[in-house]
Amino acid sequence: MAQFKRDLNIICLSPFTSGHISSQNKVPWWTQEGEVQMVQSKGSRGLRVAGAEATVLSFPASQIFSNCDYFPAEFSLVATMKIPRLRQKRNEYIFSVVEEGSDSLLLGLRARVTLGNPPPCSGPEQGQLWFNAQRKGLFICDGLTWTTLLHNPERLDYVEDYQDLYTSSETFDVEIFSVPSEGLFMAAANRDSRPGSGIYRWRNGSFQLYQNISTQEARAWKHFTIAGKIFLVVANSREAEPELSVIYRWNQRRQRFLRHQTLETHAALDWEAFQMHNHSFLVVANHRRDSNHNILSVIYRWNPDTQLFEVNQTVATSGAYDWEFFSVGPYHFLAVANTFDGQTTSISSTVYVWLDGCFQVFQSIPTVGATDWETFQIHGRVFLAVANSQKVSQRGPSLYSINSTVYELNTLTQTFIRFQDILTHSAVDWEFFTVGEEKFLVVANSHDGSSYSLNSVVYRWQGYEGFVAVHSLPTFGCRDWEHFSTDQGSFLVYSSATSRLSKVFKLRTY
């Protein structure tokens, strides 16, 4: 801008509640009653424009920058617009510089203001500003996506009931994922084999049935991508021996998931997919074989030549219920939730670390009927939350209202240490999510010993206080939580293992 000569017109949009252009250059005291005032603050003078009606204000730059031959390289523009009635998708110049004689635009600042979906962002829009009035954020288009310039962080206000989702049978798990160019999908792991499990697509602000897949008492789905190809693997927990779980692959031409590979499993309850050292892996939680819970779970590695998964390592587990993969710096970990060893649920679950080409024991952690591990980071701190479901032994009654625990990685001792105990009721899942800069955990409370109709609780991170309960959500036989976001906002969905009715909740923010 230092090359622009000062024989230019400066045009500003009015009304402003306040707005000024300031420079360190000495400027004359020049006013225009009712519209323009010169103001001085801390050694800088500027122009303030104001008006009762929307109008365009223009004036020669030479009247402002009188002691410089060129438009100054450094100046500031502060503007607060107050317009009583704003049409959606209005696109106005807030500030522009034009040649005085020809009115040819040399420099312009304008922002598109919307209350709905984001406007297009591609090559023609590069450099344009967009103000999201609903979320109070200012963004700039880089030619591909809208990049945040200024943003007022969202805060969670309340959670509202959004969609009743009726599935073909009880649902043990839901998996949210996206298919490029096709949108958002949800896979529901349903109990009944006919019609099986449902794949749902997010259309017009709700999940709608898209595809049925034959499954055998499906307990979990996992989505993953290898070399741009999209896969879904289901954990089937009841089928004539040998029990088979199935990997499905998205067929772009048919717009459906088609069977790709079958793997022998034993009452499988969970799959975890992860990538490590440019290799793709799958690990299955084998829960039991006949009545024996002390069996091997299997880690598979993708063979790019055969396009199939092959056994890479076996791990001894006791009623395995869940696997969780996570990385800390250069180290890779797998945590297994062991539920039952045939006699008691008061057993250890294990965290493994990748060393010398295989996963080795890193730490054993006492758990009580562990059904889920959830890992997350807050301000560089690494946490693991375990869902403890029930205390069962050969003596005495079962206890369902017990503590679940959040552990934190201590970098000095290189161990996970107890950070916080949270009372839960047969907890079977944790889900970590964020809203703006706030951090949350939601627990799936499934049973208290007498009823499946329980409140599941949302906890908010409060710093040194840990997680504090902020919302209670009515659930029935809650089995799994998933958080997802769309153009319509942020949502939570839970699956019910005792009813055909699962629910979607919307996170209302301010």
UniProtKB/TrEMBL annotation:
Q: Does the keyword Metal-binding apply?
A: no
One of the protein's GO biological processes: signal transduction
List the Pfam families hit by this protein, alphabetically.
EPTP
Signal peptide from the UniProt entry: none
**What Gene3D superfamilies does its record include?**
2.60.120.200
User: Per its UniProt entry, which superkingdom is the organism in?
Assistant: Eukaryota
Q: Which InterPro entries match?
A: EAR, EPTP, N2O_reductase_N
Keyword field: Repeat, Signal
What name goes with this protein? Answer: Thrombospondin type laminin G domain and EAR repeats
